[in-house]
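Q: Sequence in, structure out?
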Amino acid sequence: MISTKVSIAGVELKNPVVTASGTFGSGEEFSEFYDLGELGGVVTKGVANVPWPGNPVPRIAETASGMLNAIGLQNPGIDVLCERDLPFLAKYDTKVIVNVCGRTEEDYCEVVERLANERVDLLEINVSCPNVKEGGIAFGQDPKALQRITEKVKKAAKQPVIMKLSPNVTDIAEMARAAEAGGADAVSLINTLTGMKIDIHRRTFALANRTGGLSGPAVKPVAVRMVYQAAHAVSIPIIGMGGIASAEDAVEFMMAGASAVAVGTANFADPCAALKIVRGIEDFMKEENIEDIRSIIGVV
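A: Exactly. Output:
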């Protein structure tokens, strides 16, 4: 009998596969294809204290082995999440992870406090948002700002806190250590890499925002390297993500040091991608005579 159970900050997931924020909504569209209870967890789209309109269109562009997005964290706000999305997810036997975004430390704390008494298992804090009080640099690009916001969120939070790290930094290990020093219960990485595409026929940017976040298989080698570095820098659990499209990809991240993995862009190409990865991991374990998935975490 194989065991695919993993633990993130004391929360047990039935398997190590969750969805990546922004690629799965609240799961309602995907529930038409399979039982969300087969996943280790569902991560909601980023939610703020008030509705965000997002960026102007066009805001998606295809690239070789990936895509660029400049959605701008469009979301209907915390009220809609609590009234519509969380009751829907409560119907499924899976862990619920809410991704939180904001423009100030107070924004983040307001959302976290609202979620204190909701049926939410973990909080994922998106620190790739621009810090308006610091001239627009993302919270996750300055270790001091990252440690400070982690400390504030932890004080306000009832659930364990996962800090979602930006790869757009010089030293990912330093950022992981800053999150841990601030009291983070876990870290997740990587968020998207900053990229650009130009439409040579229109002689202008493919995205109205000029730049966007690159995701998909193109970023996977960078993501695996950063997960490996973070795993050797901190003692808290890591959720690895970035271009995971198969069970083999997921296993690679776990061997690099991730305790769980998040499937993102692959959901757009195949709505059943996350479920196929769950089953593929089980097949891999049987083929390799692995009884407990935890035995492969960080083996390299």
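The mean pLDDT is 97.
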